Inverse folding.
């Protein structure tokens, strides 16, 4: 009975609370929709994707409770979507990867990184996904792949006009080269990126 009631309640709340841009506000209403959608015997996965992203951000950013976001929202929602053979939205995967990384839940987050990359449909999405994958590969010691991903991300960011993000990714390549002892190569990359920071007036990144 509860599952049937939840299935009736979710569409009504979705219609009342979803914004014109098809997102939900980062507040307790999104969390309530997720709770009901997980109880419902019939699930609108489009609503679940959007509500879960907002609910997780609400817990992570507003309440500073990433563990709750992981346990109450991201883990059960992704499991439900998988059970329904539905692909999670790119933004939901980004949120899940961020949350897992912040908690050190790498056994959960690492498999999602490749799914994130596969879900990217435009250059800036792919660049961001490559950047997250590069950091994951760097953490696990796969430095060759990390360097490749950082370089690809830098190129895509630049083609999308996101010069600062491109410079940050390229500087990560420099960091890998420096760690390998190629200080000349690292310095060359840093010198190449310095004008970008100067044009953007990014004093902090320039100093770093």
């Amino acid at each position: 009975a509860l599952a049937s009631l939840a299935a009736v309640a979710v569409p009504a709340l979705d219609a009342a609370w979803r914004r014109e841009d098809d997102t939900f506000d980062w507040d307790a209403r999104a969390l309530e929709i997720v709770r009901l959608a997980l109880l419902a015997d019939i699930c609108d996965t489009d609503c679940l994707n959007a509500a879960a992203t907002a609910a997780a951000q609400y817990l992570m950013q507003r309440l500073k409770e990433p563990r709750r976001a992981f346990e109450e929202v991201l883990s059960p929602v992704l499991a439900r979507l998988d059970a329904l053979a539905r692909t999670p939205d790119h933004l939901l995967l980004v949120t899940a990867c961020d949350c897992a990384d912040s908690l050190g839940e790498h056994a959960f987050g690492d498999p999602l990184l490749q799914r994130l990359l596969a879900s990217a449909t435009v250059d800036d999405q792919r660049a961001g996904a490559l950047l997250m994958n590069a950091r994951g590969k760097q953490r696990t010691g796969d430095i060759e792949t990390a360097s490749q991903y950082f370089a690809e991300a830098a190129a895509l960011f630049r083609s999308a006009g996101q010069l600062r993000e491109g410079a940050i990714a390229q500087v990560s390549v420099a960091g890998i080269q420096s760690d390998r002892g190629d200080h000349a190569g690292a310095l060359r990359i840093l010198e190449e990126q310095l004008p970008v920071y100067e044009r953007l007036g990014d004093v902090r990144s320039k100093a770093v």
Summary: The CA atoms of residues 93 and 124 lie 15 Å apart. The radius of gyration is 20 Å.
